[in-house]
Every structure is written in structure tokens, then in C-alpha cells.
Amino acid sequence: MAALARSVLVTGSNRGIGLELVRQLAASPQPPEHIFATCRDPDGPRGKALRELSAQHPSIRLVQLDTVDLPSIRRAVQVVESCLEGQGLNLLINNAGIGSHATLQSVDSQEMLAAFATNVVGPLQVAKEFLPLLEKAAKGAQKTGLSCSRAAIVNVSSKVGSIGLCLGVLEAPMYPYRASKAAQNMVTRCLAAELRDKGILCTAIHPGWVKTDMGTEQAPMTVERSVQGILAVLGSLSQETSGTFLDWEGNSLPW
Ligand code: NDP
Fold first, then answer.
1. ipTM score for this prediction
2. Beta bridge partners of 38
3. 249 by DSSP, 3-state: which?
4. Which numbered atom of ligand 1 lies nearest the CA of 13?
């Protein structure tokens, strides 16, 4: 199997789905040459598992990136740019996110705004700041058409953000989380429309309900299985699937 991409950046990669994405990318038979594993605090206790992983794989480069802090995003762009030595960035995975279980009774503006800051503004700002590097990858590619190996933005979304499905609201209202993921989906859709002609693919992906700090132990799926599915789906993306909302098995979801 060909490498998914020459260079990949993952946000929120110190635990959960992000950490497993980095682990499986690095362990793949043809790993990317550059895996930019970003997180808020790579040197602190929360970065321990990622530091241990990166010690085993020279392709992994730890980069500080807080997705709600613009100076931090800009510093990360500089680090990535200098590592790439004139090449572009092929694949940006906006994985970092926060949950919220606020109900109609408990919700307040602070929790709504926090969810929007991390789940909507964050991925959009990260995409905006890394756009020159993604454009460079798209222009420099030998191939035409859209793919993760050329240039792509993948936003990790959630099925509970689907307005079309509007799943389980009474059992799990999660107003801030659902609304923020629905808004993030619109961002994905707009980016896909705007960046298509620049050769950049944009897709939203639902990882399933996964055993992580956010998904909790109650979740039916292991992080290993979810990420195996996500990476297989990413490898299959093309012009036909840019601007769509897919799950970890490649099934299409309504927005
Ligand atoms: P976790 O809570 O396990 O991990 C979240 C990650 O996001 C952590 O690495 C966290 O870093 C990071 N993060 C949060 N805020 C920021 C920020 N401002 N800057 C940088 N990193 C940040 O969640 P999951 O791994 O389960 O979720 C990953 C993605 O998958 C999310 O977008 C989530 O919405 C989505 N998802 C998850 C599902 C599940 O069942 N688990 C279901 C559907 C979607 P730190 O350690 O510093 O807090």
C-alpha cells in the first residue's frame, strides 16, 4: 500500500484518537516522512505518551500547538515550514476537540462559547494559517485530482452534530457540543467548495463512539479500530468524496 501522504499534521495528538492516529501512521508499512504530532503541552505531563512514542519513530516531530491560541498556531506553522524544507504540507487532520454534556437546564454562554472556540474557530484558524503550506503541496504534486496524498484538510466531526440525523437528543442533549460540530461541518463544506479549485480536498469524518477520555469507557469501539477505519477511509478519499461527511467505515452521513 502506498503511503497515505508524505507529510501529515495532527492536532490534539497527545491522547485519544489523535495519539492513535500518530501511532498507526508511524507504524504503517510506508509511514509518512513527516508526522507533525501537535498538542498544547508537549513537554508537560500530558505529553508523556506522545514523547515516548516519538522516541521510537524518527518521523514523528512534536510541535506545540494550542488550536485556540493564534500565536501558537503561527509558531507551529513556522516550525513545520522549516522542517518541510520548501515542500508543502499534504494532510492536516483537525482532531482536537472538547466535549460538553450541558443540557437545556444547565447550558450557559460560557460553555457554548468554549465549545465553539475549540471545535469551530480552532480548526478554521488552523486551516487558514496552514493554507499556504497546503497550497504549496497541491501545486507541487505530480498528480491531479484531489487526495490526502496531494493536499487535504480532514476535520474530525461527530454524528451527533448531524442536523439531518438529530440523534438521541433526549438521552444526550449536549447543546454546546452538537451545535459546535454542526458549525464545524459548515466550515468543512465551505472550505471544500472554496479550495477544490486549488487542489485541496476537505472532508468531515465521524470516528464512531470510541473509548477515549471523551467517549468514556462505555463506548463500544476501541480507539485502535476507529483509527484503522479512519486511515483506510482517508486513503480512499477523492474528488467525489471531498465536501462530504463520512464515518470511520466510509459510510456517508447527512449533514
Ligand atoms: P479526547 O478528549 O480523548 O482528546 C481530545 C484531544 O484534543 C486531547 O489531545 C486534547 O488535548 C486536545 N485538545 C483539546 N483542546 C485543545 C486545544 N485548544 N488545542 C490543542 N489540543 C486540544 O477526545 P477524543 O480523542 O475522543 O476526540 C478526538 C476528536 O474526535 C474530537 O474532535 C471529538 O469531538 C471527536 N469525536 C470523538 C468521539 C468519541 O467517541 N471519542 C465521537 C465523535 C467525535 P489536552 O490533553 O491538552 O486536553
1. 0.99
2. 63
3. coil
4. 9
